[in-house]
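Worked example (supplementary).
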Amino acid sequence: MSVAKKAPGWKDLPQGGYILDAGNAEKYLTGDWRSMRPVWDAEKCIHCLFCWIFCPDLSIIVEDGKMKGINYDQCKGCGICARECPKRVQALTMVKEGTAKEGGSTHGS
Amino acid sequence: MALKMALTGNEAVALAMKQINPDVVAAYPITPQTDIVQYFSQFVADGEVDTVFVTVESEHSAMSATIGAAAAGARSMTATSSQGLALMFEMLYIAASFRLPIVMPVVNRALSAPVNIHCDHSDTMGARDSGWIQLYSENPQEAYDNTIQALLIAEHADVRLPVMVCQDGFITSHGLENLEVLEAQTVKDLIGEYRCEHSLLDVDRPVTIGALDLQDYYYEHRMQQVHAVTKVQYVVLEVAAKFQEITGRKYGLFETYRLDDADFAVVIMNSAAGTAKVAVDQLRVKGVKAGLLKPRMFRPFPAAEITGALGHLKAVAIMDRAESFANTGGPLYTETRAALFDQGCQIKVANYVYGLGGRDFTLREISKVYDDLARVADGGEFPAAVNHLGVRE
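After joint prediction of all chains, the assembly is encoded as:
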C-alpha cells in the first residue's frame, strides 16, 4: 500500500472516516495491488473493445473508438481483459509484474 | 419547577427518553430492560412523542438501525441489557468510530451461561473498550439525570461519541423510588435542537460513511477517537455544572462519601454503593473512619482524579460486580490499581468480586470488607489480592 508523501495527519482529516468529496475513488491508486500485468500489443489489436467493456476498473484507455493503452495507476491486474481478448487476436497477455519489458502505455507506473 | 414522582429505574429512563423526544428509537426488548421499550412504545402509540419507533428482529439490528438513523442526522436512541448488548458488539465499535452521538440506557445483567437474568456488570464491562462513554447510576434518580446529561455529552462538538447509561438490573430498574424529575419544557430547552454536521440525507453535501480504510488512514482515524476521549472529562464536568444550576443536584466524575478524613475506603459502582454507604454510616457512629468512592464515569477512566481522592488512605478495597477471568481481578480493580501505581501511591489495595448473577449484596457482605480494611489499615494483610465475596465453597 503506497501512502502519499504528504498525506494528511489525524488533525486534518474529517472525523469518523467520513469522505466529503464525491467521485474520490479516482484519486485512490489501486495499481500497486497488481501482481500480474496486462501487456498490450498495438500491432495485433483489432480494437473490438471487449477489454474496455469488461474491465471492472475502467482502466482501458480509449480515444476516438480506438484502444490506446492501459491505465496502470488503476489496473489491479485481474486479467479479465486478456481473457476476453479474442483467442485469434491475443493482443493482451498477462505477465508477472516486474518481468514485462515495457508497460505498453505511457500512463502510470 | 421540579416534580416529585415515584418511579422505577426503567420508568425514570423511559420518562427521560420521552422528554428528550428522539427522532428515532430502534429497540428490541430484553429482560430487565423490557419496561423501557414497553413504556416508550406506549408513548409513541399515544402520540406523546414525535419519534419514529423501529421494531427490529434483534439487538444487532437495533444498533444497526440506530447507527443508520444517527448517520442520517437523526437524534437516535436505543436500550438493551446483557445478551442484547453482546449481540450488538460489532456495531458498538462502529457507532463510536463513526462518531455518532447515540445515547443508550443499559440495564446491567449477567451474561450467559448458565442463563441468568439478574444483575451484574459483565455486560457493560465487556463493552468497555468499544469507544463508548460509560456512565453508571446508583438509583432511579441518577439513571434519569444521567440519561439527560448523556445526550448533552454525546452531542458536544468536542466529543461526538456514543454514551451508555448503566443501571443495575431489577435492583434499580424495577425498584420504586421517589425522585425529582424536570418539566418537559426544561429538558427541551436544555438539550436544544440537534444539528449534525454531516448527514447521509444531505444531497447538496454528499458524504461517504463507512468506506474501506486501510494501512494508510485507519490509524489516523483511531487517533482522532483517542483525542476525542481526552475531551470527555471536561465536557462531563461542564454538563454536570449546567445540570446543577437547573436541578441543584451535583454530579462529577465520581462521588465521594465521607472520604476526606477516612482511613480506608471501598470503590464501588451502581446500586451496591447505596448499601455500602449505610455500612459507612454505621462504622462512623462507632468512630471508625470508613469512606467510599463511587465512580460515575468508568469510560474514559478518570485515573488521576480517582487516585487524587484515594491518595491519603491506608487501605482500599476495589469492588467488582464482574469477573475478567484473568487471574488479576475485575476491571475496576485493574484500572484503579494501575492508576494508583502510576501516581506512586503505596496504599494497600485488594479486589473483592461480589454479586455475580444477582447474588445478594447486603450489609453483611460489605461489613466483612470493611472489617478486612480495618485490619489492613492496622498493619495486617488482605485475605488475598482477589477475593470472591459471598460465594459458597
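Two points are worth noting when inspecting this output. The helical segments of chain A are 50-54, 80-84. Chain A touches chain B at residues 1-3, 7-10, 13-20, 22, 24 (CB under 8 Å).
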